[in-house]
Amino acid sequence: MTAKSTGAIGAHNAKVMNRLELTRRLVGQLKRDEAVIGGIGNANFDLWASGQRPQNFYMLGSMGLAIPISLGVAIAQPRRHVLALEGDGSLLMQLGCLSTVAQQAPKNLTIIVWDNGMYQITGGQPTTSATTADLVGIARASGIANSAWAADEAEFDRLVTTALKGEGPSLIAARIDGKPGAEKIERDPVQIRERFMRGLGVKGQGVSNQ
Amino acid sequence: MNNPVTHATTWHETVHATLKANNVKLAVYVPDRVLTPLIKSLHDDPFFTTFATTREEEALGIVSGAWMGGLHGAVLMQTSGFATIPNALASLVVPCQIPALIFVSERGTLGEFNLGQAMVCKTMRPVLNSLAVENITITRQDELAFILDRSIKQAVATQAPVTFILSPLLTGGKVFNPGMRA
């Protein structure tokens, strides 16, 4: 196995980065109307702050379902790349979905995990990833072989570039600091869903009238 | 005319044919003994993308994403699994107006032997009613195709989820066996 496929960097020696900066770097690489599903809380807030693309979906609740929602979009639209942005606490709530993703193996799905080792939005209580759980190790053991910690910003960029080429599924985990999300989203679920469907080219083509 | 809906003779053939007739191409499930012949026939038909998830709320998330991507899907589960999905219903499917099709194989009534199933069964309809989620208990084969076909069309037209509770009167249910534990 090569260092690239197994990931040379472990969580312990990955640089602690900033979610907003990484989200902006990520969005800056999206040139083909890729769909992005933001998990609840700070993953969403920084996605919103990085520019409100019509191909972004912002979850309001349903903690843990960013990856399943992304898998659904990826199955429905195999030619569009889909990215899930999920926090460590949310992922830990729905670990089984990693094995489902691995088994379905959509080439067009990338999972981004923001790991600050805490339930930040509820007061900073520690998650198990702060001490004992390795989310990349869990992802690999679930069958997503292409899972890696980003050592620093430059490697994060490279991993995203590789993932967007469509040989997924892949998972990129980044250790992040405790800064809260930059902006709150507008919590209007119908508008969010409607805009997302139009952004994906679904509405306006008669699907809802079938 | 050889219409697969009208020629269906069993409940699972009718469900299969009605989903197909309504262009519902995705079926995601957490397994259930009673649903086994339906799940098998969906797996055997390449028209459908069919797979199991680890948890029922995961299945609802997948079907929600697929709908937004232009693919209509159904979720299959048994009664006990319903208890895992109220959060996904209340904070995703209902507020986002997603016409998820939820099939529940009804346990907990008409000869249930497992108290755990019976208790969840008692909570299922009150939860659905309090969320104003359309729910229909289906007991008769001669009504099944009509109910499914009309309700799937209504779900899409009104952008609202619908729950089909498949009664043991329809499916035969899971029969008590004195040697059986679960």
CATH class of chain B: Alpha Beta
Helical/strand content category of chain A: alpha/beta
Q: What percent strand of chain A? A: 15-25%
Computed over alpha carbons, the radius of gyration of chain B is: 15 Å
Distance between the termini of chain B: 44 Å
Ends apart, CA distance between termini of chain A: 49 Å
Largest pleated sheet of chain B = 6 strands, parallel
Number of domain modules of chain B: 1
What is the helix/strand order of chain B? HHEHEHEHHEHEHEH
Give the low-confidence spans of chain A.
1-6, 206-210
Strand content of chain B: 15-25%
| Fold-level CATH name of chain B | Rossmann fold
Average pLDDT score of chain A: 92
Could you state the order of secondary-structure elements of chain A as H and E? HHEHEHEHHEEEHEHEH
Shape summary of chain B = globular
Describe the structure.
The complex is a heterodimer of chains A (210) and B (182). Chain A is an alpha/beta fold. Chain A has a single domain, classed as Thiamin diphosphate (ThDP)-binding fold, Pyr/PP domains (Rossmann fold). Chain A is 37% helix and 16% strand. Chain A is built from nine helices and eight strands. A six-stranded parallel beta sheet of chain A has the order 2-1-3-4-8-7, with helices on both faces. Chain A has a two-stranded antiparallel ribbon with strand order 5-6. In chain A, strand 5 and strand 6 (125-126) form a beta hairpin. In chain A, helix 2 crosses helix 3 (42-49). Chain A is globular, with a radius of gyration of 16 Å. Chain B is α/β, with parallel strands linked by helices and 182 residues long. Chain B has one domain (4-72, 80-104, 114-170): Rossmann fold, CATH 3.40.50. Helices cover 48% and strands 16% of the residues of chain B. Chain B is built from nine helices and six strands. A six-stranded parallel beta sheet of chain B has the order 2-1-3-4-6-5, sandwiched between helices. In chain B, strand 1, helix 3 (36-44) and strand 2 (49-52) form a beta-alpha-beta unit. The longest helix of chain B has 18 residues, at 141-158. The radius of gyration of chain B is 15 Å and the shape is globular. The mean pLDDT of chain B is 94. At the A-B interface, helix 4, helix 6 and helix 9 of A face strand 2, helix 4 and helix 6 of B.
